[in-house]
Design brief:
381 residues, Aspartate Aminotransferase, domain 1, single chain, 2 domains, Aspartate Aminotransferase, domain 2, seven-stranded mixed β-sheet, alpha/beta
Amino acid sequence: MNTKDMKPATLAAQAGGVIDPQSGGVVVPIQPSTTFVRGQDYAPLNSANTYARDHNDTARIAEEVLAQLEGAADALLFPSGMAAIAALFRTVPNGGAVIVQSGIYWGTTKWIRDFCARREITCHEVDASDADALDALSNDVTAHIVWIETPSNPWLKTVDIARAASAAKKAGALLAVDNTAATPVLSQPLALGADIVMHSATKAINGHSDVLAGVLCTKAQDKVWEMIAEDRATAGAVIGPFEAWLLLRGMRTLPLRVKEMCRNAEKVAAYLADHPRVTEVLYPGLASHQGHAVAARQMAGGFGFLMSFCVKGSREDALAVAGRLKLFHRATSLGGVESLVEHRHTIEPHTGIPETLLRISVGIEDAGDLIDDLAQALGQS
């Protein structure tokens, strides 16, 4: 069966249909070698492998599966999501310009701002969830990259990817989408007009909070993609074979995990939205959410597992709720099988995050147990 005809669940579970030809094993083997032998004529015994900085069978298989899941022409793995972002932005020349969505993951914003300042690149920031504002900016400036994140972290704003792609073309830019919170299971940005998709694969793609990884997926293997590939190879921003193998193992259950996480998240969001001690719930799956219509149009099978909510009262009240939670681990990150809670103002008080906001990543536990945990923490069973 052609892999192009396979649904995501089949692609993931079958690891792209790869069987180890030497052993016949249904699990992809780990190849830990850092160097590969040549014959007496000095030709590589395997023309695809000469040195591990850019050649590893396990990583290539993982990249192939990710490309298939995203409907991409190619994919490249990196040792972290930030390394993937850096590789993309290093294609922007000194004195160039980029358009970046405001209110996204702070680590991305800070790195881009610092990078642009060092390279004398003009960085235009805009609330890209306001499609008219993005259109207006794109009409006025020329840029190399338009960077968006949808749903955004931790504000859960939704960006119309098709509208953003149109805006990027007006600015003469590539559209790059951080698809981490949606995953390729729920959203297909390349099919909506994006040029490049990025994931912090540390999150739901791995799903088990035990691998640090990032990935870029491209619609076309063009000049920019060649620059990214060359930069990764020469700078050495590569993932190790053990990490690639763990990532591939995690991907086998990606559609199954995401489906359950979304189902749990919708129940948790509905509970929180009706709670007297909660003043606001930020989750695109709620009909009351400002970006619900856009999310419903471009996300298939669920609205994600990430949400934020504001506790009635003060900073201390929000911290007390987080402190009383038993099943939600107080930890940074998202997308794992275990549910997590984070008081974002403690992490990034300078970004305008409300002091009462708690961000939660909903895992695959029983939804009733998670709701019971929130109930006791909020003070109402």
